[in-house]
Specification:
Layout: H1 19-34, E1 40-45, E2 50-55, E3 64-68, E4 79-82, E5 88-92, H2 95-106
Antiparallel strand pairs: 1-2, 2-3, 3-4, 4-5
Length: 111
Amino acid sequence: MSTTIPFTPAAAEQVHFDRKELGLILSLYGRMVAQGEWRDYGISGLRELAVFSVFRRTAEFPLYRIEKRSKLRQRQGMYSVGGMDGQILRRGHDLAQVLRVLERKSIRAVD
């Protein structure tokens, strides 16, 4: 007698930022902290997306959300930056290019 073992597909893995991606994000984060713009961050790895949230103060809503959605790799690009109001500021295939939208926001005229 043989017993049949039902096949169960592996659970969907979570999406995470890899070391290179985190290096780019944390480099930008460090510069913004030095300028006094940002003070805290949070990282979430979910089934559909990975999120790096940036806060001005710990108890507030995030100023920006840097997201990685693997399913959008072949379409619009898997990286995006969203603002506090939920609007997508930039989306693309290259994380360094997408993060430039946040660097431009930090440039200010000095009187």
